[in-house]
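Entry 14. Structure prediction run on the chain below.
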Amino acid sequence: MTRKKLMCRISPLKSIRTTAVVLTFLSILMILIETCNDEVINLSVAQNQKVGCTIFSIYIGDTVYFGNNEDGTLPFEQMFISFVPPQKVPKSFITPDQRGYIDIYGSVFVGFIYNDVHYVEGGMNDQGLCFDVTHIPMESVEGPADGKAWNHPLGSSWNLLWVCSTVEDVIEWYQTHDLLGNWNAQNHFCDARGDAVVVVPSNGKLHFVGTGEDFYLITTNFNRANVRSYLYDYPCWRYDTASEMLEKIKDEENLTVKTCRDVLDATEIERGLFKDFCTLYSTIYDPVNTEIYLYFRNDFEAAVMFDLEEEYAKVDPTGADYSLQYLLAHKTYLMQEFFPEEDVMYGALVIILGLFGFGVVGLILFLRKHDKK
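Output returned:
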């Protein structure tokens, strides 16, 4: 019996038409994805926003650095940096039922704006105490029965910088104040001496995770006191990457802003055509010299350096912006003011691809009509 080969021939026109349909479908899908990224934000701490973030602190000898990638889905235009010089504030502002005034340390804060509220995600004071936060699954925590009250409406992690100068101060503060309840974040602190701690809830209590025998400390989105509690993946590739790179820094000469920048660059998340979740900004704090290096829009080639003392001099001591909810004299900037516009416009690129797909369809229809003649 002779076997015959069966061959399916597809006409060139039909093949091109099929390709055009596929291209058009993908183009429309890309446009929909690019234009439908309205995230629902929980006004407490943006719990419903998809957030990542990588934090590390490292010290060798007298050199200390604190780095952070702020990952999320908010527009770049909502990122801010604010400078608050040392000043007096009413005691009643932070401690109920007290009179008089209290002197607070000056600070730099970074974060995002939503509905005219400025949410602080990280910062450093003029004593060299730094902090930033990463999100983890919600935990319920009980505070000390005789704990002191803390009255500020936006929580505690960032305004600890008003009254604390070292990690020791931070730990004592958390152990003596009653501000606890539901936590969905862990707070990473570092001071000018290189001491570092992650304040993290687990099993109804606060835990203080330090560097141990290491010279660095890293925080991503798994609970440092309970690795079984995590957002996204565990093991965490960002944690593993940062750990591997920091471990290779063996001497003070090689601990520089550049090596810290390389760690942030290696753990960043880039924004693409099909996703808005990315690294919005990055910071490197030098707590010894009270300087901050700011990176923006995934660009680690361009940085803006701020010196706290120089920035304090630019603040009007009588000015207070109530929308910032500091009720303090300060000066706030949008981060985009310090950086040029993006070279790559993903939205425009998607539209161009969509028009290309429609153009191909038009060409196919023309060829089909011409083929029938």
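The CA atoms of residues 89 and 101 lie 5 Å apart.
Filed with the rest of this week's runs.
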